[in-house]
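If you are new to this repository, start here. Below is one unmodified record pulled from the training split, so you can see the exact layout before writing a loader.
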Amino acid sequence: MSDFTELVDLAAERLGAAAIATNDDFFASKDNLLKAAPAIFIDGKYTARGKWMDGWESRRRRTPGHDWCIVRLGAPGIVHGVVVDTAFFRGNFPESCSIDACSVHANADADFLTSAAVQWFELLPKTKLQGDTKNAFDVAGRQRVTHLRLAIFPDGGVARLRVHGRVMPDVRWMGRPGAEVDLASVENGGVVTSCNDMFFGSRHNLIMPGRGVNMGDGWETKRSRREGPDWVIVKLAALGVLSRIEVDTAHFKGNFPESCAIQARRGEGAWQDVLPRTKLQAHTRHFYESELLAHDPATEVRLQIYPDGGVSRLRLWGNVTAEGREAFGVERLNLLSSADAARELARCCGAAAWASKMALARPFAGLAAAKEKGRQIWSGLGKDDWLEAFRAHPRIGEKKAEKTQDATAKTWSSEEQSKAVAASAETLAALAATNAAYEAKFGHIYIVCATGKTADELLEIAKTRLANGAAAELAVAAAEQAKITDLRLERLVNG
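And here is the target side for that same chain:
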């Protein structure tokens, strides 16, 4: 089995994954595909439709084509490999399969997912399958995806589908700047990268949602017969500083660790103590806050348990640093599909050519690099592109732009003009008159970086710029758009 199976299963039911739609599950339901437990076989068990099978099974196809099933991932992410498990399907497994992926809203329904509006791309080409086998396939996934479409040729049964990779949530999962967030949670992008032992329970259980359901739903090492410690390392979702910790030994009663200690580090730096060695109790949620030692921002945390035993969950609440938030946001932008990146970048600048060129210019080394590339692309565009970008802004003092904006861009426009719209009726009337005079002279709306400026300030700037010639004013307006774009790129990256 490939190393990718050591990664998180993005299609795990407990993360919220679900089989959304299929063209045929006559013999066995599509919902069986994502069951956590391995498939079983019950000899002699039948339903009104035929032999009971623990998987997804379509009827024997008598027409051209193939069968398919669409799966919503429990967490969006980058797929590194898939396992198409045909356990117990021997004379009825598909001859081959393929997998396509897309990135859409997490709550997209079956009608939308089966419509022509969805842009699917190939993740796994048509590939031969073997019956009663865990068919493992490496996938060179480089784009963030939310849904998969498993196609089987021409028909047959698949017991389980496992989709291993790295979680990549939206930036908003990091909370608002300064907010506390669980930096270890798999849903936020945390990952348990390594441990010295997990004989009885997987290390990945430590950061799963909710509390453990039983003793098997945790990380448990074998009896070491030594002083210890056993250890596990968690890569945090983003660079941050810990503020609270929970170590939960739920269901571990005769096998809980005697004590634990926690350290943190950044990159390959030296480990710093965060929680000194501390006694633990059986079947208990242990919370630590005032006990935490001062430490530098960290990207990794090491939990040590003495001498061995089991821990159900580890929660590492903290605050993402500005640097960590920016790095997280830039990486997410780099991993979006070209179409998704262009769509999000269009919120920063309404020129379609700018958004598409920026999407193709990825990956960006950081926010500064993205801004610099954005300015280069903007300066290389023509007048028509500039005017298109201008039309994506509402007039100063108004709410609706000539060019359609999505909800996020509308919110940004409203917040940028928040001081202007709070002006007196007299000032707003003067602004409207000046807007009209400006457009009559220059043929496009008055563009200005309005962030932080009052209506009176914006009015005076407009009056001054009315004295410009057409060419000079177009250059000024383009420079103002570049300022707006820079600020919006910051918003896009930081969530």
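Two things worth knowing about this chain: The mean pLDDT is 94. DSSP finds eleven helices and 22 strands in the chain.
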